[in-house]
């Protein structure tokens, strides 16, 4: 009996400790609404948390967990099959003249509602005009041009209009995809920054949250330098690509730990990898997320 009481005491102590640090008991499902298993990849934040995060206005919905993005939005059936995976959010390239997969036959308002109904969170990505010194050859035909502020404003308006058409409500994040560029070229950097700031300002003015995706070594480094210099109208969320490393949110060397914090970061830590879930294979990029997600009507 004495041993039994001791064992019960130890079990109770472990359970209380788990509650104190917010760790689910072993074997507990971490996907909201049940289903799916505990997350198996290492990272800063684990997964499954949703709702409003500290520092964000009421009405903004945030998510903390694993996400994948893929060039072509998968069919609803594939998204249903992938519900068995550890992923709980999906990045979709919903608009922009610079998209690699310009035709998106699956990406409709009905698709957005269907995946929301399955419990998926959505990270909407807008691939607009690219930096004048973009390094990717296939992006050179969509460079910003001579009037970056005007262009950024126009494309920010387009980003919101296309988001609304897909049922994304105000206070949703819209992530501007700016592929790697030679940011140390002063004139090019100035043009790119003007475009980004104008896009951010217009997206904010229209009631949405401007985010930014780029490589950690170029666009993200550039935005951090601008932030330290006190530049205004910068992105509210930073989605940084650094592949071939463990997933992390607050150990990125080009970002100060207190910048874009809390619930303002996404780490794309692997790209162009094949994964199979529920009998369906996709080519994806992998992400660790603690950031706003779309509000879908």
Secondary structure elements and pairings:
Elements: H1 2-21, E1 49-51, E2 62-69, H2 76-81, E3 89-95, H3 109-117, E4 121-126, H4 148-165, E5 173-177, H5 186-205, E6 209-215, H6 216-228, E7 237-241, E8 265-277, E9 280-292
Features:
23% strand, 297 residues, alpha/beta
* Biggest sheet character: 8 strands, mixed, barrel
Q: Give, in spatial order, the strands making up the sheet with the most strands.
A: 2-3-4-5-6-7-8-9
Please state roughly what percent of the residues sit in beta strands, choosing from under 5%, 5-15%, 15-25%, 25-35%, 35-45% or over 45%: 15-25%
Detail the poorly predicted runs. Answer: 1-49
Instruction: State the end-to-end distance.
Output: 58 Å
Radius of gyration: 20 Å
Number of strands: 9
Quick overview of this protein structure:
This protein is of the alpha/beta class and 297 residues long. It is built from 6 helices and 9 strands; from the N terminus they run αββαβαβαβαβαβββ.
Structure description:
By secondary structure, this protein is α/β, with parallel strands linked by helices. It has helices at 2-21, 76-81, 109-117, 148-165, 186-205, 216-228; strands at 49-51, 62-69, 89-95, 121-126, 173-177, 209-215, 237-241, 265-277, 280-292. It has an eight-stranded mixed β-barrel, surrounded by four helices. Strand 6 (209-215), helix 6 and strand 7 (237-241) form a beta-alpha-beta unit. Helix 4 runs parallel beside helix 5 (186-205). The longest helix has 20 residues, at 2-21. It is globular, with a radius of gyration of 20 Å.
